[in-house]
Specification:
4 helices; disordered C terminus; five-stranded mixed beta sheet; Purple Acid Phosphatase, chain A, domain 2; single chain; alpha/beta; about 290 residues; seven-stranded mixed beta sheet
Length: about 290
């Protein structure tokens, strides 16, 4: 049985935390192989675009030129744009000219960009936060957001930034998202933003900013254990990506694990039931 095809499909990646050559992340993880695997796996979903919502590199690791080259290669192989925003681990200016080659407009910061994806507008924002506890949007950025959204896009807008404008279940992580989310919410009232995609938490979290759905996707590098005692953080060796389907009347986000667990069953599904409008062969009776 097959469901309705989305009008647009996006692959959402976040927080790869790429390290310098031959350096393991937290002395254990190989983040480049996780990004390679995710970009290869993205082909399975035939996305209209891939969105990378920040922390491309681990803080202090000069990997961004190599990362930009890899992402440009992925654009050619996937046949779609790869759109990147910086995170709090990416130093100002690290997401340079080699990224976001599909942009149609640039805002107050070089990493505030607009992209057109088959009638869908992607509005990418730099939420800053390098060496700061929270992310933020400047007044100039908010004014620019208002000007971009003044004219609706044919299929609406997807906004992407690193810091989520919603809280989460972990008491500490709930304090390190976007500062003053209400200021952003005020600019989105009546606009055509269909979903906000973010990262940063390493813990999949869904909510809303006003009437706009928000998805903070699970990380490619590692994810936080929600069962640790208050006052501690523990990163788990798990790697995830997200698939975002935009249908005509709804948005569906799906967290997809990069490690394949052991199968507990395999079941063959029945063939789809023809709809009333599906032509069928005329019925014949055998003598």
């Amino acid at each position: 049985m097959t469901g309705p095809r989305p009008a647009h499909r996006l692959v959402h990646l976040t927080d790869p935390h790429l390290t310098a050559e031959q350096v393991l992340l937290h002395d254990r993880l190989e983040p480049w192989s996780r990004l390679f695997s995710a970009l290869s796996a993205a082909a399975q979903f035939a996305p209209d675009a891939v969105l990378l919502s920040g922390d491309v590199g681990e803080r202090g690791h000069a990997i961004h030129d190599r990362a930009a080259q890899l992402l440009r290669q992925a654009e050619k192989q996937l046949g779609c744009p790869v759109i990147t925003v910086p995170g709090n681990h990416d130093a100002p200016g690290a997401i340079g000219a080699g990224f976001n080659t599909s942009r149609t407009d640039t805002g107050p910061n070089p990493t505030d960009t607009v992209h057109e994806v088959n009638g869908l507008r992607v509005l990418a924002l730099d939420s800053h936060g390098y060496n700061e506890p929270r992310g933020k949007l400047d007044p100039e950025q908010l004014d620019w957001v208002t000007s971009v959204l003044a004219e609706p896009a044919p299929h609406g807008t997807v906004m992407v930034l690193h810091h989520p404008p919603i809280p989460t279940i972990d008491p500490f992580l709930a304090t390190v998202g976007l500062a003053d989310p209400a200021a952003l919410a005020a600019r989105l009232q009546g606009a055509d933003v269909r979903v906000i995609l973010s990262g940063h938490l390493h813990l999949s979290t869904a909510g809303s900013l006003g009437s706009v759905p928000v998805w903070s996707g699970p990380a490619l590098s590692y994810n936080h254990n929600p069962f640790t005692p208050v006052g501690t953080l523990q990163g788990l060796d798990s790697s995830w990506m997200s698939v975002v389907d935009l249908h005509e009347s709804t948005v569906v986000t799906s967290a997809v694990p990069m490690q394949t667990p052991a199968a507990v069953f395999t079941r063959h599904l029945p063939p789809p039931i023809p709809s009333p409008t599906t032509p069928t062969e005329p019925h014949t009776t055998q003598e």
